Amino acid sequence: MLSFLRKPLASPSLLLVILIAATVGGVLSVVKFTITQQDKLFILRSQEMVASGLEQRGQQFVGDLHEYSIWDAMDENVNGETLNTEWLKVNMSGSAYANQNINIEAIVDRHRRINYLLIDGKFVPPDTRAQSIAQLVESFYPAAERYNPFSGAPSPLGYFKTTEAGVDTYYMVAMEGIASENQTRIPPNGRFMLFASALDQRWLHKLGENFKLLNPNIGSQRVAGEPSIPLKNLQGEVQGYLRWQLDMPGNRIFSSILPYVLGLLGVLTAIAVLLGRLASRLRASQLAQAQRLAAQGDALRSLALSKDAIPTSEVYAEEAALLAGTTLDLPHLSVWELSKDGQTLSCKAKVEKSRRVVIFGLNIERIHAPWLFDVLDRKAGLVVSQIMAEENPEYWINTGSAGALLAMPTLVRDKAMGVVLAMNPATRQWRPDEVNFLASIADMLALSIESQARKRAEQELSQRIYYDELTGLPNRVCLGQKVDELVFNPEYDNKYVCVLVNVESLVLINDKYGVATGDQLLKGVARRLEHFCSAHELLGRVGDNRFALVLDLERGVNLTQRMDMLFGFFSSPVKAKDISLMTRLNIGVSYLQSAAQWALTLHNAEIALHTLHRANRENTWVEYSLEHHAAEQEEQALREELQQALTRNELFLVYQPIIGLKTGKICGAEALIRWQHSSRGLISPVTFIPIAEATGSIYEIGIWVLRKALRQIKEWQQETLSPLTISVNVSMIQLEHANFAEDVCRVLKEEAVNSNALELEVTEGIALSSAPAVEQNLKHLRLHKIKLAIDDFGTGYASFSYLRRFEVGKLKIDRLFLEGVPDQKRNTNLVNTIIAMAHTLNAEVTGEGIETPEQAEFLREAGCEFGQGFHIGRPMSEADFLLRLKRN
Prior knowledge:
With 888 residues, the chain is of the alpha+beta class. It has five domains: 1-46 and 250-298, no CATH class; 47-245, LuxQ periplasmic domain, N-terminal subdomain (Beta-Lactamase), CATH 3.30.450.220; 306-455, GAF domain (Beta-Lactamase); 476-624, Alpha-Beta Plaits, CATH 3.30.70; 639-887, EAL domain (TIM Barrel, Alpha-Beta Barrel). Helix 8 crosses helix 9 (313-328) and helix 21 (740-750) packs parallel to helix 22. The termini are far apart.
């Protein structure tokens, strides 16, 4: 029964021809069906495209109307008791017709009467074409009367047909009330504006060009077989149909491609016959290739397994050369290593079965084999099936009697380290698997070289891992091991203390003189500490600017005496490069009980050190106590709770008024952050701001403060119609953030606040900063007209040069300078000097901490522009500040 299939199955070529014919026939059927469906889809998409175009035109049309109707000048001249026709003749002079193709422009009052009319850009009496235009008004007025253009809802838009002298004209029509730009509703006595654009032949011609439509037209009825779109008025009544014709390409395409498909069928049939003949040859070739690949795979696996077992790279190269030469059955295969200067190749291994291709000794110079060194320079293999030495004898020198060669570079991290060379006495067509195999041999040799280098590096690293690279002192790990040895010594007597030394001045020195100078300072400190310690005492570097000492107190010297001696060692400057620097130290001390408690002892010394930092003390020492531990735990708890303060809405702002001293009027406020903890109560910024700076959360908090302050000043500006400013304090950590200025400008834009309403206050610590990000941020802020103020001026690192360098816009005189003013002459003169210096730099001045009327009057007479302090107003809530503004 199935005998008719035996011949095709026995002949793959015939079977392939049958399958091709069946496939082509099936494809033709599918193509025919698909083309028919595509024609239908073509009509549908054409309708969707035209409908989308009409919708876009309608949106543009409504936008054109909106520009005229929601206009302060239009509202002023049209919505009054009398219509300002003279103004209309100037401002509605036909530009809408010329630019937006608006054929009818009409102003309609609440009695649906046309007060002003333009037809085709020319003024005509309102009673002209009264009936047709009155119909337009009657149809669109109810929707326009209900519509509020400020609600965001789409404007009433529809189509309308008029018939005059037996001729139908179709219009796109929109109508809405006239109002000013800052209103929220149409005024109750306002008039309306009506726009109508004729869908005439010019419009139809442009529509046809835009959407590639044939014969676009408008009629009252649909035409069978043609796409169309109904044009409806606001009541949903069809006024007419937009119609057009389409060129259906489906059948025409099918007829045109049929001869090519049949021709393709013939070509595929011929190819099928040829493929059948080639298949048998390919099977034989694949079998031979599979055998070669199996042998190559075995060789590579053997070489990979022996990589770690073979002691040296030379022995490994010999084994690789032997395996490769045997596997590829080559008369010559050699492995070469490149010298460090890249001019000489040295032979590491060689396998030769034929002396006919021996051309090299144990070394090859670059000038003697440019073709081989070219492989190293290009970092790419060289595959030559037939050496044509006579064509380029200067290049193909020293190839001997070789007819073909194959060379692969040994690359370690993209650096040429050597080459694997295979040569054949006769010409040889190198197979791809042979090329890949020799490349794999080169890669295996590269892995061996890299492995040997890694082992050497690990040995060097193991020698250096326990010592600090800069100072040569034991690091934290090594110091811990030495403590173990010390404590387990039978002579250990429990009289040792851990002394943690922190070099406080390092950050300032790095900023001012550079990191290289800071490194020299650390080396100098390390040398002095080495001289301070006795032979059996320990010293190590355990941090960037920290050293740990383990001192013996069992020598008739108590802890206080040893600390005095230690500070005495640093009473003279430390030499760093060509600079002599006084070094300020803070020291935390904890007694060492056992080796098992070394980590705890070091931690306790760090806790003691932290207490000095919190107290802003320098050049002193403190011994660890349980009270220090409790304070550290309290700070840690606050640090964790501060991370949640924003999400829990525990942070809030208060505002301290700033007045103009000449007018006595409030001109702005300083935003001050507060933390109302759910259980701890009100926490001072003095407590939590340093924690925020230490944890890095100050940046997120700072952006929150900025956004809230800008939002608040915007509300007050709108409430009072006054150009108020808001001052926001900025941490140096924020200024050192690469994106700070961009984030400030982004928040200003998002909150829609003008940059001249914002003032950023920084401390004088900015003078010590050398961070590139600070310079870039300040430049970006100045570019966007954001004023920079120096807060607490006179208490830090003030200098005339840095004020000029940063183009400071305002100085805020610290409250300390106002104590005793105007009675104390010294402070009075100092304040006058600061004000004069600021004015020399074109900077304004704010006096902080004003507590008496006399201080305010003195500052005003001295030329100080602004004042701030308890006499003027304490920090207050948003509501209280607004009341103060209204009283102002």
